[in-house]
Amino acid sequence: AGLAAEAVGGLAYLYEDDLYSGVILYDLGLDEAFARHAEKVWARLRSRGVEEIVTLDPHTTHVMREVYPRYVDGYSLTVRSYLEALDEAGWSPGNVAGAGGRVVVHDPCLYARGLGVVEQPRRLLRRAGYEPVDPPRSRGDTYCCGGPVRAVAPGLSNAIAGERLEELASTGARVVAVMCPICFLNLSRAAAGRGDVELRDIAELLAAARG
Hints:
10 helices; globular; 4-stranded parallel beta sheet
């Protein structure tokens, strides 16, 4: 949130008035419940005079940018991820403090395939003094972390996460830049007990560059 505030003038918070996007309802196919919830969210934001939101994860970004317009009449919010906002603002940490080194980028499926958020995180990492590295499957051909199927197929989820972690580790970069909380959680399970990889949220890496 601190990084987002640096990129967007007039950034504000709704605090306890903020509402969950409802993305899990959409993912589960509960269309009527999702539509009702989305209408409620839009009514709340509209009543507060909100014209643009800056999101912190790919699932919220995707559902509020791409899905809400199909379910909510008159929906007119501008929706950007904080990575897009930072990149568009030309964000730089200034004098890089203690950052650097090779970082392998795990592209979340929704950012890379659904929203085209691919080059932005790499540009931000370079500005912060890191050397972004791509694993064998990356960008538009990225590979899933396995998280979305955990509730119904935990064994399959673990297998997918293990396969993906091997791909990431094969680059020789110790630090893995992750941009999605679901990816972070599922890959962390696969990384438990390993000493050759360290998962870091990209926001942590960018913030660390400021010292």
